[in-house]
Design goal:
two-stranded antiparallel sheet, 4 helices
Length: 68
């Protein structure tokens, strides 16, 4: 499953967090966050859950979900 956050940068800015602060909270590198905010890379399910916990709501685009 590929999880791409659609509104991560907007949520981060609205919460008053810098990229560095968010990275520390969710445990990813600033480079990965930058690419995730631009929709270039996906997040793990665990990281996506951490984001949802921080922002209380989050929109994700899921690709390749398979029940096999």
């Amino acid at each position: 499953m590929t999880i791409i956050p659609l509104d991560l940068a907007a949520k981060r800015k609205h919460a008053g967090l810098t990229q560095k602060q968010l990275c520390e909270k969710i445990g990813i590198s600033e480079f990965h966050l930058l690419r995730a905010e631009k929709g270039k890379v996906s997040m793990s399910f665990k990281t996506a859950l951490k984001c949802t916990g921080i922002f209380n709501s989050m929109t994700f685009y899921e690709v390749g979900l398979s029940l096999d």
